[in-house]
Every structure is written in structure tokens, then in C-alpha cells.
Amino acid sequence: MSYRLAADIGGTFTDVVCVNDATGEYTTTKVLTTPHKLTDGIMAGFDELIGDKWDQVESIVHGTTSGLNAVIERKGANCAVVTTFGFGDVLEIGRGNRPDMYNNRYRRPKPLVARKSIYEIKERTDADGRVSVPVDTEEIRRLAKSLTGKYDSIAVCFINSYLNSENEERAAAVLREELDKSVMVITSAETAREWREYERTSTTVLNAYVSPITKAHLIALKQELISRGFKGNLFIMQSNGGVMKDELAVNKAVQILMSGPVGGAIGGTVCGRDNIIGVDMGGTSFDVSLIINGQCELQVESNVEGFPALVPTVNIFSVGAGGGSIGWEEGGGMRVGPQSAGAKPGPACYGQGGTQPTITDANLVLGRIDPEHFLDGRMTLDFEAAKKAVGDFGAKFGLDVSTAAEGICAIANHKMADAIREITVRRGIDPRDFTMLAFGGAGPMHAALIAEELGMKEVIIPAVPGGFSAWGMLQADIRHDAVRTRMANVDELEASEIDAIFDVLYAELKDTLVREGASVDSAAFHRTMDMRYAGQEFTINLPVDNACKNGVFDKEYAKTEFHKLHDRLYGHSAVGDPVELVNVRMSVVCRSRRSKTAPVSKACGDIRALSEFPGVFGFKTYTVRVYSRSDIGCGAVINGPAVIVELTATTVVPPEWSLRMDENGSMVMVKN
User: Within 13 A of 440's CA, how many CA atoms are on the CB side?
Assistant: First the structure.
């Protein structure tokens, strides 16, 4: 076997990459996403790249948005919650904070489970983890009979079960025994074993809400693959930047909700720069990630459509600005996004019935897209349809078609630049110290103009930018995370107690690797702790591998490192104040085989332009030359304004910018 495949499902397109490990060569394709049946689009891409060589495919990595889309569209499973008597309103009460403090029209999202589908039973685990009221199995059996035929999944979440899951596991066992085998029973102990009642319940409900949807999708995909002769491993991309086998992912759907955008961030860690701002612009959204010293930023808690999820996640900030984002009018002002034309009908220029102006239509009108070479000539764009859509939109403001198109693109660029400021400038990080890595189908089209607004001097366009997220998935390692809550003043803890918790987490992760068939001997285990000063509410996640070097946990070393980290993040520390431990965490990583890249041939003579046409930049008209990326050899330089076309993306080189092809096949743009 010598081939590895990856598929990344986006809102408009599905990107598929095939890597030949023997030669380092990789091919890619881009097919329209098929929302009615996601496997159709994936298999169309796979079949195009691999043909009848399925017996030579070693593994497949898949990033899916099926679960995330179910949450966004409220089309998840019919789910019930079984909880402790007196705690049925946890989801309804939630938290009292407002994410948008000054929005007097703010409405909290409705819980994914209606109050009538929340069932309370008599049981109790005390705050110290002692079971004071055992589960009555007969009560659970009676409850199971009343639930029969009503639900697709059951979330079991008892108070304090993160300390002792005995009651929860017993109740879940009875429910699995009594209910139909198709009903998924998911406990909080196996989903999020840490404190904060609302967040833990929310995470468990999210898991139960999307797991049946994800399970159906993965089973259908696996059946399609097997029918073609695939005998390798199917891995699923996780939100934490790692992968796991599909058998494990079925019951851990909440861990793969953000699997699509994460692939590009992982790919960015191997692109040859230590400090990267990754920008992924597809058809629907613009996703920003930050790579510092070659490592992705990881957060221990995320937010999914307003619902907290206690799941380690690569820090990605998203805004609704993609190639399909629609221009619209509000109160006499021009707006762009977050509404998207999607895959169907798509932008007006796609010729599928769309009539609303999108960012893609605006770029076409401005001469930043070659309609004859879009998708490497596989799709011809309708210039007149785009011109009419943008022109009709501009007429609302008394603008001609070119000015309206400039307005759409300028608003989109400002919106995307502000998304980058959100994770850099507003945290005291200067984006000018970073290189921009632009990928996604539309990312290279806007990257230079966004970088210019931020004062960034270098932009990298990787090989196959439209499929870069899929390629990045092939660079991901097998990864799993485990956590236990232990709240105490660090000085009052015995080092042996912390060591014992790490031993429990090690055994849990080792068992997961064994079930996955991965090698424990080659795995790397990493320890972190969530810590805070006494009196604080929230924590900082501190790496503590160096505090465990001698086999015994060094509390003083951990405290010293915590003070340093707090000072680096917030500009101050409180040395001498009590430090508290909240959560103990461990992750395990099994390194995957990195994809080597085939060498790029050197440039030979002048590069012939495919065509040229007028293009507008800053309300000035220029002659824009169009080049094929495949004609650009290593060391070749192209001065803007120019457009570089290839199958998966279009790269725009604005005036006063130049582009050079490096030895790795990446295009590097710099401001002249």
C-alpha cells in the first residue's frame, strides 16, 4: 500500500487529497458538497483520484462538519436527558453572563433538549465523591419503558459524577439493556469528566445530540469504502488537532465538531515558519488560527453556537465571510455576510439560479478571477450574471457596478482583518511579527490585501491551497485527552496524590491506545494542570512535564512556572499568593508519518501568460496577467497585478506586490 487519502467537507466544496508516500507526489480535486448525502461528494472525489487502486490505499483521514451543521441548523438527534432529582433545570438556567453585553436584543439560544424531555431520578453523589443515594435500578427500568420508541439518544448526567461515576454507569447500563440497540446512551463521565455542572451537562447533551447523526454518516461512508475494496484504516479528525479511528469517533462526536477548520492549522505547523497566522477562506466562513513557535494554540474549552463544550480544541476564530457570502442592504448601509449562497444555488456566476451578489461575483466583476480558467477550466463562470447581480445591488446605493464590487470586497477584507486582530492585537500580539499562511478556495484571493491592511509583509500560498486543510489532516497525529478535577491549594496537596492522578490518566489513555490498535511504546504522554490564584474564577492551563522529570511531582517548580505564565499572559503575577489546582490533564500523541513533498522543477526562461484582461484595484484599472501555477518553476518571480490559477484556488497578486515560487512548491508573496 502506498496511498493515503484525506477529505475535508466544506459548506460549498469538498476537498480531497491523495498522497503517494512512495514518491511524495500528491493530487487533489474539488467537488461540490452534497448536503443531502455527504458521502456522495466524498466518494466522487475519492473515485476521481484513486480510480480502481483501492487495494493500495493504506489510510483515510476525514474531517466532517455533519455534527456541527446539525447543531447550527438544529437538525440533530431527538435527545432526552436523565439527571439527578432537582437538577432538571440546569440547561435552562445556564449561566447569567451575556456574551454581547450591550445588545439589548440578545436572546440566549434555546437548549438543544426541551424541558419535557429531561427526566429526573432519585440518586446522589456527594461533593466528596461518596455515593449517598444509590441508583434504584427498578426506577431506571420503569423510566426506560416510558422512553421506548421516543428518542434516538439519551444523555445521562448526574450531579458530582465527575468525582465518582458509579451511579451514572449503573443507570446507563440498565438503559442500554432495556432500550433498543439503536438508541445511543451517553454519560457525562465518558464525555467530560470535570467540574462545572452546566458546562458538563451542555457537553454531554451536545455529544448525545450529534452522535447519532455522526454515527449514521460514518457508517454510510465506511460501507461505501468497503464496497470499493478499501481495507485500510479510517481516521477522523478531531477538534484537538489529532485523529482517532472511526470506531471511537462514533461515541465521541462532540470531539470532532470543529474537525474541518483544524486540518489547515495542523498543516501550518509544518510549513517552514515558526510564527504563522493561518487564514482559511472557503465558501461560507473565514477561519483564523495562530501558530506560535511551531505549535497550534489549544484551548481546554470551546463554544459551539452558544453552547459550552469541555473539549480541548485548537483555537480558531471564525467569521461569516467566504466566497459565497452575500452582499445586502441594512438601513442604507452595505453589509456582507454572514449569510452565504452555499453550494446550491451558489454565487450568481455559477449559473445555478443564484441572483444575489456574493464576494465571488464581486471579484469576478473586478477582474480578479479568470472566468475561463476557474477550477483549472473545469467550470466556466457567467460574467454577465455576476455583473447583473452586483449592478442591481449597487443601484440601491447609487453606485456603478465596479464601485459596488469594490465596496463588497473592501467590507469583506475589513471584516477578515478584524478577525485577525481579534486573536492578535486584542491580546497584545503584533501581527506584523507573523507570516500569513493563506489557504482555502478563496483565501489566496484576498490574502495580500488583508495583509496590507494589517501591515504584514509576507504571505505564503501553499501547494494546493484549496485542499490544504485536507492535506493538513494527513500530517495530524493520533491524539487523545483525559482529565480529572482535583480542587485544592497546591501547598496543601501531597506530591504523591498528584502523581496518583497522573497514573490514573495514564492507564486510561493507554487503554484507549490499545483499543485503537496504536503502539503504546512509541507514544508521548504530556501533562498539564489548570491552575489559578485563590479567589479567581477561571484558570490557566500550565504544561508541567518538566515538573515530573524525576518521577515525583515538584510543586514548587509548578508554582514558579504558573507565576511566569500568568505574568506573560496578563502583565502581572502575585508571587506569594496561594495558588490553586483545579484540573489535572494528560494527553497522548502517537506521531504519524509526515508526507514528504516532491521537488519543484527550476524555472526555465520567461513564463507565458495564459491571458490578460482589465482589473480594478483601489478604483484604478490595471492590466492583469493570468498565469497557471503549473507553469511557475522554482525561483520564478511574478510582479503584480497578476492572477495565478489552479484547480483548487485563485491567487491574486495586487499592484506593488510580487510573488516567488520556493523550492517546496509554495508561493511567497511580499510587498515591494
Answer: 32
- Across 528-538, average pLDDT: 95
- Round to whole Å and give the CA distance between 610 and 644: 10
Is pLDDT of 598 > 70?
A: no
pLDDT above 60 (res 604): no
> Phi/psi zone of residue 87: left (φ > 0), alpha (ψ -120 to 50 degrees), beta?
alpha
Q: To which residue does cell 426541551 refer?
A: 114
CA dihedral angle for residue 152, residue 157, residue 163, residue 164, rounded to 10 degrees: -70
Q: What is the spatial distance between Cα 669 and Cα 87, in angstroms, rounded to a whole number?
A: 57
pLDDT for residue 337 is more than 60: yes
Q: Which domains does the chain have, with CATH numbers?
A: 1-261 (no CATH), 478-590 (3.30.1490)
Q: Letter for the amino acid at 44?
A: A
Distance separating alpha carbons of residues 384 and 364, to the nearest angstrom: 10
> Which cell numbers in the block locate residue 478?
493520533
pLDDT for 196-236, tens place per residue?
999 999 999 999 999 999 999 999 999 999 999 999 999 99
List of residues 6+ apart from 370 with CB closer than 8 A: 610, 611, 613, 626, 643, 645, 650
Alpha carbons within 13 A on the beta-carbon side of 519: 8
- Euclidean distance between CA atoms 298 and 528, whole angstroms: 12
**pLDDT over 80 at 317, yes or no:** yes
